[in-house]
Amino acid sequence: MSAEIVAVCLGKGGIPKHSVPSAQVVQSGLVGDRHRYELHGGFDRAICLLSEEVYASLREDDVRCETPGTFGENVLARGLDDARLRPGDRLRLGPEVVIEIYDIRAPCTTLKSVDRRFPDLMLGRSGWMARVIETGVLEPGMPIVRVDTV
């Protein structure tokens, strides 16, 4: 897998989130990021990861999504192979941060504000929720690599 961070996004709760030049990652997620509902956060769901390829796929379905953070993701990645990711997989984001995939992100009805066909249109391409294993700083352009677990 040859992937990289395209954007790091924070929000006040709900969608959209907005790109930032960098963000500090702690056990509970990105510093400055908020969640509107309790089920959207927590240690197991600290970071939402989505691939740029999902954006391209949704644009083919005439969804207007040009700006990172449109779908509430914290990390927009390029080259992430969603088909090969599974809960329990670990990824190193940049030199410091390690996350562990917890579960597939369940698209919610909040996404209807982007397109009335959501959340159904996003099924199978909604991204991942992850817990933070190692903290640090994230910035666009940083590499993403799979970490072998013992």
Can you describe this structure in just a few lines?
With 150 residues, this protein is mainly beta. It is built from 1 helix and 11 strands. InterPro entries: Benzoxazolinone_Detox_Enz, MoCF_Sase_C, Pyrv_Knase-like_insert_dom_sf.
Give a written overview of the molecule.
This protein has a single domain (3-147), classed as M1 Pyruvate Kinase, Domain 3, CATH 2.40.33. The radius of gyration is 14 Å and the shape is globular. It is mostly beta strands. The chain has a 7-stranded mixed beta barrel. Strands 4-3-10 form a 3-stranded antiparallel β-sheet, with no helix packed on it. It has 1 helix and 11 strands. The longest helix is centred in the middle third of the chain and has 9 residues, at 52-60. It comes from Saltatorellus ferox. One of its GO terms (molecular function) is pyridoxal phosphate binding. InterPro entries: Benzoxazolinone_Detox_Enz, MoCF_Sase_C, Pyrv_Knase-like_insert_dom_sf. Residues 15-147 form the MOSC domain. This is 6-N-hydroxylaminopurine resistance protein.
